[in-house]
Records
---
Amino acid sequence: MPPELSFDQPALLVMLFAMGAVVGSFLNVCIFRLPEAESIVSPPSRCGSCGRRLGFIDLVPVFSALVFRFRCRYCGHRYSWQYPFVEALTGAIFAGAAYVFGPSVEAAVTIVVSCTLIVILFIDLRYLIIPDGLNAIILCSGLVLDAYLLWTRGWADAAVKFKEVFAQPLGTPPLSIDQEIAAPTHLVYLPRSIVGMLIGAGLFLLISWAASKLFRKDAMGSGDVKLAGAMGAVLGGGYVFLAYALVSIVLGAVVGVVLIALKIRSRRDQIPFGPMMAVCGIIMLFWKTRSRA
């Protein structure tokens, strides 16, 4: 009998990396075309300098960059390191998700959300915007994962449980601690994705409002708040999301201070927060537990 297929086999991981690198090449197209409202399908990939349509050898992920030394083989124009970096990163995400989660819906969701976060990272870094469509993809991924967990495992893994105490009639004396413990209760189940979305968007909206009052200028864009809500839908509203929010804020503050100290940016310049949220989001997707407790 042939050996059982396992996602920790080196040959399979290499194949998944190659597949991810091809997807990474497409993500580069999305990064450059979405902000310009251009089609991501047509026209085919071309050199941004001479306009020459790229051949098959030019589009081989990572390999073509190393062979041609980051230059167009037609005009010799040097292109950005972003191309091979995104391809290699996407390949690592494909292989990593398969290795960590195995053949599962959660692996697929991790790949989809991570790829979307990569596009958000570079678009926000370059254009200071986060397209609503990208946030929608992440939000829908959280909803799909919840629906799958509800279908396969029931409410235990797809919902947050709230204990509600039976309400006492008006005018009655308050209950003692022992009476409250003994009082009839029932559980209210709410989807983790919905709870996480509300907590995520609400928390970052509050932070945005407080920061704008403190610094007397807009400290966070609406796209960041929407991204927080979308990530809340994927991570849930528990400690994983709170850790994600805390690390993102701390990383954003550190990066901002360093950029100002090195005089790369001034205090008046707008520093995009989306890239920090995207980096932390990818990390948390691999760190979180399957139940998203």
Note: Strands lie at 159-165, 185-191.
---
Amino acid sequence: MKYRNLTIEEHFPKLSSFLLRGFFNKQTDMPPHWQEFTEIVFILSGHAEHYTPSEDWLPIRRGDVWVIPPKGMHGFRNTDNLKIFNLLFASDSLPIPLLDLYTHPGYKHLFLYPSNPDFSVPYAHLQITPPYIRKFESLLNCFTHFDANLSGRVHNSAIYGIFMAIISVLCDLAVKDSTEERSPLDFQKINLFLQEHYADNITLAQLCKLSMMSESSFRRHFFQSFGMTPVEYIKQIRLTAASRLLLTSTLSVKEISSRTGFNDESYFIRTFRKAYLCSPLEYRGKKAVMKHDAAK
């Protein structure tokens, strides 16, 4: 399969000595694609699945931050009111004052991806807490303000300063993450099991046996790895699968409820409405209208 390649010339039309752009974006579905520059993706709100070569499709949520390296690939699907901030730059064009970033102990973890990858190494990914989300939103708003309203040397100085602040905070968080006690939970093993068996009646005892942990240890390490409880994570996977079936099949709500592990149709409808702010049938109808309008 041939993938689209996003080039520097295409995304930095006004070429300068330092290639840097940042913008808020109402992200829609976007097939996996290559790119020639570094991209930091801040997930600000909404729902979707995000693709990377080493981890395939994974649910994403507010607070996720992904660093996509040059020559990296990623994409989005099943997007629903997904708001993100894209920070694009070419690291080899950093001006001299910003080269200090290279010496930060967190920089290597976030930005020095193998130059000849086999894509077995996951891209750098952080899950930031609400206080830091608000801090980043403030910095990102400042970035777009100066980018839109200033020019010349003042513009460059302001943009570079805000950019350096953003990267520095990310590097600080990366260092904190790398020095915390590592969870013995096999993230990929558990995630693969849940992705394959989400429609089954999964019990906590099964997951504890699979991870070879006691119930209390499993709950603690699962939350550290996934940022939510097992019940919440399984529910999110089931909702994602249900939303996909609503768009790609003519199955009834009752059939979709059953196929995705929601054995109680009423509970499924309530849970879906809470997550997507509409009923399953309303969701199917809205998406159909959007597709129709886009096809005109």
Note: Confidence is low (pLDDT under 50) at residues 150-154, 290-296.
